[in-house]
Design brief:
Number of strands of chain A: 9
Order of helices and strands of chain B: EEHEEEEEEEE
Mean pLDDT of chain B: 92
Low-confidence stretches of chain B: none
Mean pLDDT of chain A: 93
Helix content of chain A: under 10%
Number of helices of chain A: 1
Oligomer: heterodimer
Structural class of chain B: mainly beta
Largest sheet of chain B: 5 strands, antiparallel
Distance between the termini of chain A: 66 Å
Strand content of chain A: 35-45%
Shape of chain B: extended
Number of helices of chain B: 1
Structural class of chain A: mainly beta
Largest interface: A-B, 42 and 49 residues
Helix content of chain B: under 10%
Strand order of the largest sheet of chain A: 7-6-5-8-9
Order of helices and strands of chain A: EHEEEEEEEE
Number of strands of chain B: 10
């Protein structure tokens, strides 16, 4: 035979898998363990008083210790968000869904969160939301202990109260 | 209210084992598609004759020298000569093809003018630039039309 087969192989499939060990460290371990008790911990900067959630050892803006642990609320305000319309492999959430930054009451930075129990097109900057926790006995001290956030129905927060906390 | 952190308060670190997975489905195109079909169905390695480059393996569509289309298909041998090698002493699970030390090699197959990238699994102590190697094929019925239909290259006795 003087040629390869006429009918080509159309595609090849391959799996690349990278196993790794995530070690939370001191502050992040405290943060995760507190979630099991429905508590959200931050750390307050000695110099500026800013509260970081999750807690950080050193404030990244002024390089000062942020070693005072404080509890923040499990409710806050949507500072920014996007509506996800493309499914992400390995993420089993029905599209469209809303991925948002939520600034918790008492925190000076926002955390990443899902916003549900609302039509995506109704989500807006300034919307007040509250955490929906996993039931007692099911929380394990990880990020999924907060399942998502949902609107509280309170009036929207004015922009000047959250635009510096994106 | 808040509490200052002291070293004595430190908690046991949490650790979690995770796997980051990237599944690929790569469209091969006509030329590489026929090259792979040759591996799967014929246990043959095909190159194409290209202006200014000789026999190129794996095959290409056109010459990088003068942009002319590639000419006829040429079957090359499944034996060849190592032109470069790099031993991986500590393979990473999921990333590398073998769990034990192996080598990435460039092999210029007999009849070809370019080198094919592949792996050598055994006999690393005999592996060097210039070593003679032969393809180890996956058995009939187990070849899937990928470059891993050649499982690896084995170093031949010199």
């Amino acid at each position: 035979m003087s040629e390869p087969p006429r009918e080509p192989v159309r595609y090849v499939e391959a799996d690349l898998a990278l196993p790794y060990h995530y070690v939370a460290g001191d502050y992040r371990a405290r943060y995760l363990r507190a979630l099991a008790d429905k508590r959200i911990l931050g750390s307050r900067c000695r110099k500026t008083g800013k509260v970081f959630v999750p807690p950080v050892v050193v404030a990244p803006d002024v390089f000062e210790p942020a070693d005072e642990f404080v509890e923040v609320a499990d409710r806050g305000v949507v500072t920014t968000f996007c509506i996800v319309n493309i499914p992400v492999y390995g993420r089993d959430i029905e599209i469209p869904y809303v991925a948002a930054s939520v600034a918790l009451d008492g925190a000076d930075l926002s955390i990443f969160a899902l916003v549900r129990e609302v039509e995506p097109e109704e989500v807006r900057m300034g919307m007040r939301v509250e955490a929906v926790w996993k039931p007692d006995g099911e929380r394990r001290g990880d990020y999924t202990d907060i399942q998502y956030f949902r609107p509280t129905g309170e009036p929207d927060a004015p922009p000047e109260t959250f635009l510096h906390r994106l | 209210m808040g509490e200052r952190n002291r070293t004595a308060d430190r908690v046991e670190p949490l650790r979690q084992d995770l796997v980051l997975a990237f599944p690929y489905k790569h469209s091969t195109g006509e030329t590489i598609g026929r090259f792979l079909a040759g591996l799967k169905e014929q246990k043959k390695i095909w190159g194409r004759r290209v202006s200014g480059l000789g026999v190129v393996v794996p095959p290409v569509d056109y010459s990088e020298v003068d942009a002319s289309p590639a000419r006829e298909w040429v079957e090359v041998a499944d034996t060849g000569t190592v032109t470069a090698c790099a031993v991986v002493h500590r393979p990473i699970e999921g990333l590398h093809p073998f769990p034990h030390p192996f080598a990435y090699v460039l092999v210029r197959l007999d009849g070809a003018d370019t080198a094919l990238a592949h792996v050598v699994r055994d006999g690393l102590q005999r592996l060097r630039v210039g070593a003679r190697v032969r393809a180890v094929w996956a058995p009939d019925g187990e070849r899937k039309g990928t470059i891993r239909d050649i499982v690896c290259f084995e170093v031949l006795e010199s």
